[in-house]
Amino acid sequence: MPKTKLAVLADENPWTAAETTEVRTELEADRERLTRELSISAKGLQDLLRDNVDGAGNDQADVGSKGLERDAEMSLAANQRELLLQTEKALRRLDDSSYGVCESCGEPIGKMRLMAFPRATLCMPCKKREERH
Q1: Is it true that domain 17-132 has CATH number 3.40.50.2300?
Q2: What pTM value is reported for the model?
Q3: pLDDT by residue (tens digit) across 10-47?
Q4: pLDDT, tens digit, for every residue of 91-133?
Q5: Domain boundaries, the chain
Q6: 81/11 Cα distance (integer angstroms)
Q7: Are 102 and 126 in contact (CB under 8 A)?
Q8: Residue whose C-alpha is closest to residue 20's, from 121, 95, 83, 102
Q9: How many CB atoms lie within 10 A of CB 48?
């Protein structure tokens, strides 16, 4: 069964096999990197949480510092998880040929936007509208 062509703006050339491969390769590399980083973050969080339990007798400054470190690590892990989910979604969209279609209006997102930000799911007008709300 022939692959469906990916959406492009009216003034853009169709996606080439090389461009699609480049985007897929970048997304797959991101997925591997994010998976590794999440694993490291999870280990770091486990260590921080264990230190909080084992740290009886720490002064208030140490407790506060460890709390800030734990919060920063949790925030980083949450951001990494979100990027990983966006990356996996982009790869699924490449597989089902919906990559490049705005999730809000159904119009093409644009190759240049996707080449710069391969996880994009909204065209520029919809992204601007979303940011205003």
Answers
A1: no
A2: 0.79
A3: 999 999 999 999 999 999 999 999 999 999 888 877 77
A4: 999 999 999 999 999 999 999 999 999 999 999 999 999 999 8
A5: 17-132
A6: 35
A7: yes
A8: 95
A9: 18
